[in-house]
Specification:
Blueprint (H helix, E strand, L loop, with lengths): L1 E3 L2 E4 L8 E9 L3 E11 L25 H20 L7 E4 L9 E7 L6 E5 L6 E3 L8 H15 L6 E9 L6 E9 L5 H11 L3 E8 L4 E5 L3 E6 L2 E6 L11 H9 L4 E7 L7 H5 L2 E8 L2 H15 L5 E5 L2 H7 L6 E4 L8 H10 L3 E6 L2 H11 L3 E9 L9 E8 L5
Parallel strand pairs: 2-4, 5-20, 10-11, 15-16, 15-18, 16-17, 18-19
Antiparallel strand pairs: 1-2, 3-4, 6-7, 6-9, 7-8, 9-10, 11-12, 13-14, 19-21, 20-21
Length: about 400
């Protein structure tokens, strides 16, 4: 970010301290966006990007920076955003959990588009609908890199006779087996069994395959519909349509730190997904109530909760919107753990959390801006007592934050 005539100018792929000439692409009232025309002075920190598609595919933003610098800048960005948007000025330590900078992603989504020389597979370019065709992606796990290479060959050789439009792959904790979802504009008169056979032969690591025919909005499942993902000594069932954290190296540390030292009679987890945090919470609480609005995820969550019941824990699963649950519940939990989507909490959820007044809230956030907005309200009744940064998305500007909040004593 730079400034010109009092206007903030955002330019990607520039390192702090560099001097560049910029061509503006969009000019708004309070800010402008542009791209580099020429580097006049480069930073000594600048490094060569590992990926040949960097700056084009839209997935990575920081490959021109060494990893230690990425972590430092993310910490600064987190604290500046919380102070600027939320008036939260945290002077305490921020424990930073680093990840191996490449090979970390356990989930990927690729688009397939027609081209003159034949169909291509890749990612959508930033701020565009244009496909950036790729044959490699160094932030993927080895299993997903192999899957991409196999799909690249399959698509390039036109061995899929139907109109393939999108593929999503998710690898297990050992990086051995995958869930694969493939969406077609139409099956073209070919059966799901034939399409599944072609994909399974080309990609032997497939554990379960979900095919979608968009022309009929119909799904065909070939396989169990889920895989088991190991996190420490726990195994989570994760289905095709369920959310799970994407960093295979840090998911265990995030789950452990989010539940660390928590104990009492009742814990409430909102936006629980498949129960990543519910299972470790159950070790310290007599009861855990896990609330998730996605029915597919709660089917996995219920199965994962049974593994806790076998060892004496109790997790009660609610297939319900978090706001709806909070507005109706009469429970008074000792701890509330939140892991909302990037949009953060609704106004009603923020207000209800304040009125319930649990002694402690732990907030897992993937967006500093919405976290700042939510903390601005929550800090009227709570104070921040701990903050950790998990770099779940190296090479990108995204980051995950765990904030611990303690209810203020009356009069403070």
């Amino acid at each position: 970010m730079g400034h010109s005539e009092g206007v903030a100018v955002f330019v990607p792929f520039v390192a702090p301290g560099e001097t560049v000439t910029v061509r503006l692409d969009a000019h708004k009232k309070k800010f402008a966006r542009g791209h580099v025309e020429k580097f006049l002075e480069t930073s000594p920190q600048r490094v060569a990007a590992r990926c040949p598609y960097f700056t084009r595919c839209g997935g990575c933003h920081y490959q021109h920076l060494p990893y230690d610098a990425q972590l430092s800048y993310k910490r600064e960005i987190l604290l500046e955003t919380l102070a600027r948007l939320g008036a939260v000025r945290w002077a305490g330590p921020v424990e930073v959990h680093a990840s191996p900078p490449f090979g970390y992603r356990n989930r990927a989504q690729w688009k397939v588009r027609p081209a003159t020389a034949g169909p291509e597979i890749g990612y959508v370019e930033a701020n565009s609908e244009t496909l950036c065709a790729v044959d490699q992606c160094p932030i993927l796990s080895p299993r997903l890199e192999d899957t991409l290479a196999r799909l690249h060959g399959l698509v390039g050789r036109r061995e899929i006779p139907a109109a393939l439009a999108e593929v999503e792959a998710f690898a297990d904790g050992e990086d051995e087996r995958i869930l694969l979802g493939a969406s077609f504009t139409h099956f073209g008169g070919i059966t799901a069994a034939v399409l599944g056979g072609l994909l399974s032969e080309a990609i032997p690591a497939i554990e379960s395959l979900l095919l979608h025919d968009a022309s009929r909005d119909r799904f065909e499942l070939l396989g169990p519909g889920y895989l088991k993902y190991r996190v420490g000594d726990r195994r989570y069932r994760v289905g095709h349509l369920s959310f799970f954290q994407v960093n295979r190296f840090l998911v265990g540390a995030l789950a452990q730190r989010a539940a660390a030292g928590a104990a009492g009679s009742l814990a409430l987890e909102l936006y629980a997904g498949v129960g990543l945090f519910s299972l470790p919470l159950a070790a310290g609480f007599e009861r855990v109530i896990s609330v998730e609005g996605n029915p597919a995820a709660t089917r996995d969550l219920a199965e994962n909760a049974r593994s806790v019941a076998d060892s004496g824990g109790t997790i009660q699963v609610r297939t319900q919107d978090a706001e709806e649950f909070l507005l109706r519940t009469q429970e008074h939990p000792d701890l509330i753990l939140l892991d909302p989507p990037r949009s953060g909490l609704s106004e009603a959820v923020r207000a209800r959390l304040a009125s319930i007044g649990s002694p402690e809230i732990r907030y897992v956030s993937c967006d500093p801006a919405t976290l700042a907005r939510d903390l601005k309200v929550l800090c009227e009744t709570y104070e921040v007592v701990g903050m950790e940064l998990f770099d779940l998305f190296p090479q990108s500007f995204h980051l995950e934050t765990l904030v611990r909040l303690r209810r203020r004593e009356r009069g403070t």
